Amino acid sequence: MKSLQYVFLSLFFVTTAFAQPAGTRAITINDCNYPILGVATNHASDKIVLTASQGRVFLINVSDVETKTSVSPVWKNLNLNGLKNGGKPQFSEDDKYILLQESSALKTAITSRKVKDVKYYILNSTDGKVISEGDNVNSVQFLNNSTQTLLSSNDGIVVKDFLANKVIAQLKVEDCEMAAISHDSKLIALSFDPDKAAFKEVESIGKNKSELKTARKNKRLISFYSYPDLKKLYNSKEEIDVVYSIKFSKDDKQTYLLSHNVVAERIGTGALNGISMAAADNRRQTNIQVLDAGNGSLVKEIYHATAEPDADYKFGTYDNVFGYSDNDGFIGWKRKLVLIDNSNHKNKVGQYRYQGRRGSSNLFPIYFSFNKTKPVAYLSNGTKLIEWNYETLKEYTDYIEGQDNDSLQSLAINQLNTDLENPGSDLAKNIIKLNITGIYLFDLTVQKKGQIVTIFAESDDKTDIPKQNALKDLLLKYKFKDIVVSPNQRLKFRYTFNIENNI
Q: Which of 383, 402, 421 is the last residue of a domain?
């Protein structure tokens, strides 16, 4: 028997027609019809790679972004199955390769306290062709040697030459989760789920039975190893929340951790625009914490809290700037990119914010990267890319307007949400019967007594057209209850289906 697992995104925003001030430009990416979920700039700062839902990847020229408002990709790859929520991108040191890693945080279930394994791809940056791929790993990172990667899994860490398909080094670590290697390739930091003995060595826990019980259930430790000899050096001095990302600072003196203080909400693409599939847990937040890489102690002077479940955080190389994405509360109707002076982590350098005027919760998270030669950041805004000069324009709020008929839209969207989340509804049963799966973005027009009269579908080379058409046929027979549109009016809104059928 099949049950329908459904995750939704409802988009009913249009950017205002107000002219943007000097210092910011909105760029349309041709053929990119789905929200941007990952951004990375290469080391030469002449290329940007963008990822979107369902494994869509686009490479664009920085020179085009600087001179045009509509950019055609140098190449696109629409065949990377497994990266449903986009892929976290990074370039190799010589810019020859692009690594795309599925987000671990976005796969975490509300009842889970373990990092989930992910899939990854390595592409040739010249043409976007896949040259290596793998799964069942927790994290992947390029070494300075551009043909080598550090991979972590529940069993430990492996350094692998992906071109030669050869293991260079490996270390077994029980209950290992995330890992990272320093820029000079001399130090590895990894998170793991410790046993009782390891926690007892933590000064803040010691023999406190209550603290020990809580730590064993919810906390982690960070271990540091020298490389290439893989000799263990020390553990972190304090317990850490469940870690979803580890990065070394530019000078390798500090280790940055992205963690959740309570298990993350059940997250699918619904959370990509701020809508949670579970009730918001006001105790949960995403933490950015820092350890001294020389001894594992917590740098208490550096701490950032964000409500973004999969916060993007990066270092600027042009100047000493640290940036992270944030969500002003769990409702998600204000998204922002915050830039901090990395020398003290106190002075704000700049802020770029998207804000919905009517308190709607449908703005997508911000993913971003820095230009390495000038004070410019590239940040995502749904299907658009924003070029932001944070020296010219230190703070800016980009208002996103709702369309007319908000109350009717809300009723229509809520009905779709309810029917699609209920396997017993006629719509859900028909979707299961026809085995319709995938992501489909529709512009719907409703008239009279709730009938859908027209459907415009966004698609690209990756879209399953037969299933898209089958879903359109179902929707043309669908009727919204309690919605009456005036004879000379039409209710129009955009809705994105992300449908999975599980046996």
A: 402
| 337-358 pLDDT tens trace | 999 999 889 899 999 998 865 5
Strand-pairing partners, residue 377, are 370, 388
157 forms beta bridges with 152, 171
Provide the pairing of β-strand 118-124 with 56-61.
unpaired
Domain shared by 322 and 250, yes or no = yes
What pTM was computed for the model?
0.81
Domain's final residue, options 402, 437, 463:
402
Beta bridge partners of 387: 25, 378
36-94: per-residue pLDDT in tens? Answer: 999 999 999 999 999 998 889 999 999 999 999 999 999 999 888 878 778 999 999 99
Rounded Cα–Cα distance for residues 291 and 429 (Å): 51
Same domain, 143 and 247: yes
| DSSP 8-state secondary structure symbol assigned to residue 469 | H
- Closest to 441 (Cα-Cα) out of 356, 503, 364: 364
DSSP per-residue letters across 213-279: HHHHHH-BEEEEEETTT--EEEE-SS-BPEEEEEEE-TTSSEEEEEEESSPPPP-SGGGGGT--SS-
Peptide bond into 375 cis (omega under 30): no
